[in-house]
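Two proteins were folded this term; both appear here.
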Amino acid sequence: MNTRFSSLVTLKKNKMEQSERLVQRANADFNTASSQLQSSYNSLEDISVPDTGNISAFLASRELLSTARRSIKDHQNWVEFTKEQAHLAREKLKSDMIEHEKFKHLELVEIKKILLEQKRQEAKDLDEVALMTYTKK
C-alpha cells in the first residue's frame, strides 16, 4: 500500500544500504592497513645489524633500519586514519538506520490510519445498506 511516506522509506533504505557498503569498505581498508603494519614490523625484525665489517655495511644497515621505522610510522598513521574512517562510517550508518526506521514507522502509522478509515467507511456503507433494507420491509 503506497502512502506519502513510501518513496521516502525507499530513499532512506537505499541510503542505509549505501552506508552499509561504506562501512564494509572502511573495515576492509582498516584490515589491509593493519596487515601492512604487521608486515612492516616483520620486515624490521628481518633486518640484521652487522657486528663486524666495514663502515659502509653498517651505514647501509642503519639506513635500512631508518627506512623501516619510517615505513612503520607511515603505516601506523594509515591505520589510525582508517580506524577513524571506519568509526565515522559506522556512525553514519547508525544515523541512516534511525532515519529509515523513523520513516518506516511513519509509513506504518499512515497505513493504519488508511485501514481504519476504510473500516469506518465500510461500516457506514453496511449500516446504510441495512437501513435501506429495513425500511423496505
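Next, the second protein.
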Amino acid sequence: MIDRRALLVLAALPLQAGRAAQEAGPSLPPPPLAPPEEFASLPGQPVAAMAAHPAIGPRLRAMAAGRQRLVAEALRGRGPAVVWEGGWLSGWAAAGELRCFLAYEPRAEQVALMLWEGNRPSLFIPPRWAPWPEALRPALRRFNPEIEAQLRFG
C-alpha cells in the first residue's frame, strides 16, 4: 500500500523548487551601464586599443593561433570605434581583404573573435556552430548584416 503522506510530500517538491527559483530571481544580474573602470577608456577608441589591453591581448594571441598575423593586421585597419553595449566591449576593423570583429565581456572575461579573409570566414571564436552571446547580435549586425542568419544566439 502506498503511503499517502509520502505521495503528498513528493508532489509538493516541484512546487517548492519552483518557488525557490522564483525567489532567487535571475541567475545573473543585468549588465552594468558603464564598463568597469579598468576598461572605461576603451569605448570611442579604435579596436586595436582594445586588442592591446593587458586583459585581452594575451587571450587574443592564444585564440588567433596560426592566424595571429592576419588578425593583428586586420585589427590595425580602419573601422568604427569600440562601443560598450549589453555588457560587452566590441569593435571591428578592416585592412584590405581582411576584416576582424573583436568583443570582450569583462565580468566573465570572455572573448569573441571573427576573422574574414575576402568573402569567406576563416576564424570563429566561439565556433560558428556554438551559441554566440545574444548581447552581441547588434554589434555583429553592424559588422556584417548577413552573419546574423549564419550564427546561433543563446
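The longest strand covers residues 88-95. Helices lie at 4-24, 47-52, 57-64, 68-75, 137-143. These notes refer to the second protein only.
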